Amino acid sequence: MKVLGAGSTVIMAECTSLQFVSPFAFEAMQKVDVVRLASLSDPELRLLLPCLVRMALCAPADQSQSWAQDKKLILRLLSGVEAVNSIVALLSVDFHALEQDASKEQQLRHKLGGGSGESILVSQLQHGLTLEFEHSDSPRRLRLVLSELLAIMNKVSESSGEFFFKSSELFESPVYLEEAADVLCILQAELPSLLPIVDVAEALLHVRNGAWFLCLLVANVPDSFNEVCRGLIKNGERQDEESLGGRRRTDALRFLCKMNPSQALKVRGMVVEECHLPGLGVALTLDHTKNEASEDGVSDLVCFVSGLLLGTNAKVRTWFGTFIRNGQQRKRETSSSVLWQMRRQLLLELMGILPTVRSTRIVEEADVEMEPNVSVYSGLKEEHVVKASALLRLYCALMGIAGLKPTEEEAEQLLQLMTSRPPATPAGVRFVSLSFCMLLAFSTLVSTPEQEQLMVVWLSWMIKEEAYFESTSGVSASFGEMLLLVAMYFHSNQLSAIIDLVCSTLGMKIVIKPSSLSRMKTIFTQEIFTEQVVTAHAVRVPVTSNLSANITGFLPIHCIYQLLRSRSFTKHKVSIKDWIYRQLCETSTPLHPQLLPLIDVYINSILTPASKSNPEATNQPVTEQEILSIFQGVIGGDNIRLNQRFSITAQLLVLYYILSYEEALLANTKTLAAMQRKPKSYSSSLMDQIPIKFLIRQAQGLQQELGGLHSALLRLLATNYPHLCIVDDWICEEEITGTDALLRRMLLTNNAKNHSPKQLQEAFSAVPVSHTQVMQILEHLTLLSASELIPYAEVLTSNMNQLLNSGVPRRILQTVNKLWMVLNTVMPRRLWVMTVNALQPSIKFVRQQKYTQNDLMIDPLIVLRCDQRVHRCPPLMDITLHMLNGYLLASKAYLSAHLKETAEQDRPSQNNTIGLVGQTDGPEVTREELKNALLAAQGYPCELLPLTVAGIPSMHICLDFIPELIAQPELEKQIFAIQLLSHLCIQYALPKSLSVARLAVNVMGTLLTVLTQAKRYAFFMPTLPSLVSFCRAFPPLYEDIMSLLIQIGQVCASDVATQTRDIDPIITRLQQIKEKPSGWSGICKDPSYKNGSGDTGSMDPDVQLCHCIESTIIEIINMSVSGI
């Protein structure tokens, strides 16, 4: 067997002349292949005798006939070998007694100390160990070797990890090496508990020829190979080349792996797992690479070292990086180190793929003179491209992570490889990108003017060949975009961004000093890419077809994004709008992460000038016509969607652009006003034509593929279109798209699909005569999806007025309501406008007005100015209230935007809606409370007051604005306020209600002195019954209210002085009632008093008012007495 040619010079000198077990022989022992064993030569067979003799003499566990035959062959094989007799004699010893003596000696050594010369196994040594061994019989030979071995093992255990070298005659004498090895193997086999094989292996590292003894020991116990290797590695040093012990351990393991090469890579795996002996891992890889050399593929050495440095295990990366750094610091002979061998092998592999060609083309292309005999590497073969890329990444990792400092030869060869020209394939594109980033990361590789010129010529070639590479290789992400991106970063001095780009492309995090990029910056900004050249080139770069997140690498979109951020387009007056529009149209799912930042920075460049000195330096927005062309055919059902020209991704991105643009326009109103600029806002008619809710619903099912686009659109909708984000609508949509809807779709018949909008119109026309047909069609339509219902929306809404006629079954109304709610999930705004126009009151000879979306946002109460019959039809009233809620939200957003546009947000309005001052921003005021307050401020029929106060939980908010309502000049609002207050006092008998009621009584007293006779009658007749409720809720108001009633009666009496005879009796009774109420407690039971018919029956307003006052007082007295 050929001895290893590298490693520790000590071990190499020891083992040069020794015969090792060959891989063939070891495999035969592993498999007990008697035929192979028989083919071994005598010297090879001699090394395996201990195991073979034991195999032949010991009783086998295998009693099969085949083993019996094999055993005969083994005996025949051993019969002619002389050394077998001595091994048989060794096996005849009483090993039990030997083990007991060995145990006693260990105890004695432990008691007296490891250095004691006393020995139980061996006593009275008259000569040296070698002579004693020669003259001794088998039992004494066993004792001599065992005593020496135990002494070494004890010293190893006491050394605390420090390596020592033990001189021993038994293991050094070349004459008795084979006999000593026989004894060693027999001892270990017969006394395994006393001599664990891993401990024996550890002890053998400390003696001369230890590796040879170890290989023989393992060869005679082949199943212990992995155990021994793992034990040696686990007990090994973290850095094996730093010490003699580490080098001896490494070489011993290399000998073992030479003996059993099939397990070499497994042993290498143990090295990495334990993070011990890095030199062994590299050495085993070098041995494997030489044996398995592949001319074209990536070598095992490149793969192994790359895996260590570029893997995810930081502990392994640090461990191997330390090996590289320490190896460079050693001053000893480099050719004997594993690191030197690794570097040499890598350099040979690198040079092996560099064909030397005399390049005349470079001389022609160069702008400066070059020597005519300059020879460079170019024309990289296609089969070498992948290997070249792997080598570049490995050298990047070695230099950037492990701190390898390349020699002049390595730097020269690396530069030649990086500036070579690969074929136009995807692998070639990848190679050029890696080479370019390596030049940026390690600029020290370019040290001479000739090398710098070579790099400049290569970069110029990159620019020239970029389009050809992209068209030929079929790779969208080419190196041209990376060149452009780096040039932009250099122009904007974003060196950290270049470093991030380099690390991302190389796939590793390395430290790059910004100062090292200074020369490259000069070359890029002054010689290759000026800023104007960058801008002009970027706009001509074709957009990426079907741009999605599946296309990785650096794309034109990255370049355009950076140029937009640096405002290069506006600075050099280059229009970029068309490029961005084309790229948005060429998108697909999954969404590329750079699209949303691109839109945001584009919007900023439209609204914000590049500099204050040039306010016109902005980009142009996308036109309305271009926007509308994207949404052509988007509505009309699932069957029409196939005819759409643009993808759903493009439509959603354009929607995001419009909403973001409008929001940014409002947010920058003050800044734009200060600069006297007013960019154009998109018209409301454009927004009406975009099916926003339909698109959002489509996006909801693609959330995983759209990334953050869906959530961004929801945020913009909640801000600018809150009426499209009503919670009830989302819940309704969940019901429509749930399991029940799926079951209904299973019931869908061809008849349901065949009903056309025209048939539905004919069925509605026949409603006065028959309801059956329209009911049948409507029931079938409930099985359709929301998008399939869109063609029926106009017919459904235009005929709602007919459903208000008497005799229409409730089931039809409820089905219409259900269909309307389904349509509301895909086309709410258009549906609302059609519904409002359809439910207008029909007045003969008066042409109905057609309201628009804008009209309804400005005045949401148009919704309530519908046909009065709607209020008596619950299904249609539900639709009306739903629209009212939506338009109130839309109106709020519209008014807020209007205030921002007119800069009114800095000057709070002084004419706030009654009762809402200080309330609109209060966190405790909900939207429902504001709506109730608004309705109450406008007033509504008093018959509804008991129902609203008792049924609406938030009506207590009205107590806040009733004082302001009472103070209004309109008599109707004052009456409504007092009537509302009377019901609130009964419902909410609180201190706050008491103070407002007392205020109302005082105001009534004040109004008594200023109202005319007609207004007095109109005011007090409906409000006097409210005083009874005040007294019922708050008895302390009794005196004030009674005084007010008497005062009202006196004023009425003074106005009819000519009829004093008729009035005096009433006034007298009022005085008596006030003074002695108990006597009149039952008078309210008389209907004549309640109705005021107990007197003259005059129709005079004052007389009627007096009768009403009398009835009110009697009711108050009766209430108070009955309460007592």
TrEMBL record:
Keyword Nucleus found: yes
Keywords (A to Z) from UniProt: Nucleus
GO biological process: snRNA 3'-end processing
GO cellular component term, pick one: integrator complex
Entry superkingdom: Eukaryota
Principal place of residence: nucleus
Keyword Phosphoprotein: no
Subcellular location: Nucleus
Alphabetized PANTHER family for the sequence: INTEGRATOR COMPLEX SUBUNIT 2
Entry's family note: Belongs to the Integrator subunit 2 family.
Protein name: Integrator complex subunit 2
